[in-house]
Specification:
single chain, 313 residues, Arc Repressor Mutant, subunit A, SH3 type barrels, 4 domains, 4-stranded antiparallel beta sheet
Length: 313
């Protein structure tokens, strides 16, 4: 209705067919909306037979029902700034177009306040991976249509491309990078694929059903980041007093539990499906964090610490 209102303001006697084509809806939808605007909103809309279209019989500045609270205005401003996260991705242009259309429909006073708020709020995002627009579109379509997906994949550190045939269950964005969670036909197991490393995607004719027992939340929450789960690990990490306050005031994982010690240190407890990512996180704190359990994590950290030491010896 906002867009119909704008079309009527521009003049030119738009009709149902023209508006339906422009807004990608049926002519019946346009007709119902115009009837609602004329009869329920009491707007001065008339059909001019000689022009084969609709018009306002007198000037109308804005729709009479637009209202927005202070909280809604703040949320809208935050959403506008959050669009920066999608710069350089296939979503940048359609999101910007949608937001511009929405902003154009707001009264001038609200638009002015929105601009002022936007200068007050900002987001700082991580790095974005380069991703071909068609790659993301095909991956999303395969997950939506439940169709088998074929592609060539380059593993990190690997040389040649490997052909993969998968059932795509879910697409997720983690730290600015797009990942595909899928059942790998060859490996007979769930795998996580970075879409920036996938090439020559091809939709198959075969379809599949996502197992009822699969939960994307459970699958992702077992990981400290994005890696596919490989086990069930109870992790304990001691954080030294100098860092304990900062670490304890953040939630690093949904399974997190904190144990406070008399000397000011804390022990973090996690339940994780893999250890590689949490090992990197522990190493990032240097000698302020020590893995207490499991033994496999301590061994992994010991090997990685020796490798780092060798670089500087």
């Amino acid at each position: 209705m906002l867009l119909i209102h704008k079309a009527l303001q521009r003049g030119g006697f738009p009709n149902c067919s023209q508006l339906a084509a422009e807004l990608e809806v049926s002519t019946k939808t346009i007709s119902r909306d115009i009837d609602f605007m004329r009869d329920r909103m009491v707007m001065p809309i008339e059909y001019e037979a000689s022009e084969h279209g609709y018009c306002y019989t007198h000037e109308v500045e804005s729709l009479p029902t637009i209202d927005i609270s202070e909280g809604e205005l703040l949320a809208l401003s935050v959403a506008q700034k959050a669009l920066d996260h999608y710069k350089g991705t296939p979503f940048e242009k359609p999101l910007a177009n949608a937001f511009n259309k929405l902003s154009a429909s707001l009264p001038d006073t609200i638009t002015a306040n929105l601009t002022e708020l936007s200068d007050t709020i900002s987001f700082k995002h991580g790095q974005l991976s380069k991703l071909d627009e068609d790659t993301l579109k095909i991956a999303i379509k395969s997950a939506l249509d439940k169709r088998v997906l074929r592609f060539h994949y380059k593993k990190p550190g690997g040389g040649s491309l490997e052909e993969r045939v998968v059932n795509p269950y879910h697409i997720t964005n983690y730290l600015g990078k797009w990942y595909l969670l899928a059942w790998d036909h060859t490996r007979k197991a769930m795998r996580t694929f970075l879409l920036a490393r996938a090439f020559q995607l091809e939709l198959g004719e075969e379809t599949f059903e996502v197992p009822l027992e699969f939960s994307v939340d459970d699958y992702l929450w077992t990981s400290f980041g994005i890696w596919s789960p490989t086990g069930n690990h109870k992790v304990a990490i001691r954080i030294q007093p100098s860092l304990s306050e900062y670490v304890s005031e953040n939630i690093w994982h949904p399974s997190q539990k904190i144990e406070f010690n008399d000397n000011g240190s804390v022990i973090l407890h996690f339940k994780l499906g893999s250890l590689e990512e949490v090992a990197r996180w522990i190493l990032s704190w240097g000698n302020q964090a020590e893995a207490l359990a499991p033994k496999t994590l301590r061994s992994l950290l010991k090997c990685q610490a020796k490798s780092v030491l060798n670089l500087y010896s």
